[in-house]
Specification:
Layout: H1 9-15, H2 18-23, H3 26-39, E1 55-56, H4 57-67, H5 72-83, E2 95-96, H6 110-113, H7 136-145, H8 152-176, H9 190-193, H10 202-205, H11 222-225, H12 234-249, H13 254-260, E3 265-266, H14 268-288, H15 293-310, E4 311-312, E5 317-318, E6 321-322, E7 327-328, H16 347-358, H17 395-407, H18 411-428, E8 433-434, E9 441-442, H19 448-464
Antiparallel strand pairs: 1-2, 3-6, 4-5, 6-7, 8-9
The chain binds (2R)-3-hydroxy-2-(alpha-D-mannopyranosyloxy)propanoic acid.
(2R)-3-hydroxy-2-(alpha-D-mannopyranosyloxy)propanoic acid binds next to helix 4.
């Protein structure tokens, strides 16, 4: 099994306008490095200075990939720091709180999460009590691949040290987050998806009634740094907090959380990343002299479950599975495309995803200009160019799709994603997210993963054009 056709990225880059865009992007690369250096704390990189003043799990993985082109040492330290906050269960928390950040600078902070209630929480490391998409093994492999030959031994030793922690992270998902027994990992909070406010969860999330008094009065700090129209609504925040409270009440014990949470999903994006990282673990195990066989078996299990359980023929796409209501959600969002990360995705499914990506739903041309890839169907009645994960473009989802498309030999579309990402940054800077119609920037400025992932897209694409280069 393998990709449907052999990627030919080099000839695509050379023959398209992308080559010109890439050679003209030195200024942007310098700015990207400035963003990463500004947000560097000495042991990890903040997603942004004000809105996100702690270490976020999948942000750090994305950041390490981009950073490793310039500074392998910091890239390695980024992931090491994150894994110091790993739970005894193997869970990598979504947030590792930084005691050096100003008190009260982020809500909900450690006083709300109270993870010390759990015997599995790492002593001395205040964290959140939930996880995020497990992109870390893939990131670690990329960081290692970017190491200079003379750093090879150091990098391999680092990988050897990290491997058992990465394996434990995957074991936790396989054992403690597998309520269906299919091998798909379940998420218990929209924050675990990374796409917190996506319409993908609306049908379940909108039904969650927050009992009076269940959530103590609180003040949102995000609205000090971002406009309300860009962020989740207050009603959604109440629900986010209510779910947190339920999880805290059972001391973040996985079995009890699975039983108690009104939010329980098998998400195509989370699981596609899980699968892609499991394949990375196969390679890492080989590199460090461990047994890759269990990772191969796990990858096969996740692949089969993804295709069997989340592909909905009637919709011709992958749909999130609401495990509480036992429904596949039909909303046409970007999570449906992430299975491109599966190297063994059947060609008919690859073709269906590409058709959808090329359709007016994801190529809005309403105001002349258009940028790709919006996070939600442009034709949906509640498509929103401003609001968090409900339409705008994010560079991390662009990066994931670019990786997936290249893996399946869809180089023209992959190249358009790079070109569009470059254009967005040129127009609006390294913003957290972008309006797909006019390219204006939203959310944080100087956002770390935008800087890191643009760097990776540009430098990977450039090095593909240099004969003899490995990538
Ligand atoms: C956003 O999520 C946090 C909660 O974890 C928030 O809104 O406060 C999401 O975009 C998430 O994917 C991201 O990791 C985080 C930090 O960039 O911000």
């Amino acid at each position: 099994m393998g990709p449907v056709s052999k990627p030919d990225w080099t000839s695509h880059v050379l023959s398209s306008g992308l080559a010109a865009a890439l050679t003209a992007s030195d200024d942007l690369l310098a700015d990207a490095l400035d963003v990463l250096d500004t947000n560097w704390t000495g042991s990890y990189t903040r997603p942004s200075q004000q809105l996100y003043p702690h270490q976020w799990s999948w942000d750090s993985a994305f950041i390490a990939v981009g950073r490793s082109w310039h500074d392998a040492e910091r890239a390695r330290l980024e992931l090491e720091t994150l894994f110091q906050a790993q739970w005894r269960t193997g869970m990598v928390p979504s947030i590792a709180f930084d005691p050096a950040a100003p008190a009260g600078s982020y809500f909900p902070g450690p006083d709300v999460w109270q993870t010390e209630r759990s015997p599995a929480a790492p002593p001395g490391h205040p964290t959140s009590g939930i996880t995020q998409p497990p992109i870390h093994a893939r990131a670690a492999l990329e960081v290692h691949r970017h190491a200079h030959p003379e750093e090879g031994e150091v990098s391999l030793a680092w990988l050897r040290d990290l491997y058992p922690k990465l394996a434990a992270q995957h074991r936790h998902l396989a054992e403690a987050r597998n309520p269906t027994g299919t091998g798909l990992a379940a998420i218990v909070h929209p924050w675990e998806s990374g796409l917190d406010d996506s319409p993908a969860w609306d049908r379940d999330f909108d039904r969650i009634e927050v009992p009076a008094g269940a959530v103590l009065p609180y003040r949102r700090h995000d609205l000090d740094h971002a406009v309300p129209a860009d962020r989740p609504t207050d009603t959604d925040y109440d629900r986010f907090l209510y779910l947190l409270t339920l999880e805290r009440d059972v001391a973040y014990d996985d079995a009890r959380v699975l039983a108690a949470s009104p939010f329980l999903f098998a998400d195509p994006l989370f699981n596609a990343i899980y699968l892609w990282s499991e394949h990375a673990l196969v390679e890492i195990a080989d590199l460090v002299g461990a047994d890759p066989a269990p990772h191969r078996a796990a990858a096969l299990r996740i692949h089969e479950a993804l295709v069997l359980e989340l592909w909905v023929d009637a919709q011709r796409r992958f749909c999130p599975w609401d495990l509480r209501r036992d429904e596949r959600e039909p909303e046409d969002t970007i999570v449906s495309f992430a299975p491109l990360l599966d190297p063994d995705l059947p060609p008919a499914m690859v073709a269906a995803i590409c058709r959808e990506l090329e359709s007016p739903s994801f190529r809005a041309r309403r105001r002349g200009a258009h940028f790709i890839v919006p996070t939600y169907d442009d034709r949906a009645a509640d498509f929103d160019v401003d609001r968090y994960w409900r339409g705008p473009i994010w560079l991390n989802t662009n990066w994931l799709l670019w990786k997936g498309l290249r893996q399946h030999g869809r180089d023209a579309l992959a190249g358009e994603i790079v070109a569009s990402s470059l254009e967005l940054v040129r127009l609006s800077g390294f913003r957290e997210y972008f309006d797909p119609l006019d390219g204006s920037g939203h959310g944080s400025e100087q956002f770390s993963w935008s800087a890191a992932l643009l760097t990776d897209m540009v430098l990977t694409s450039r090095s593909a054009t240099i004969p003899g280069r490995r990538r």
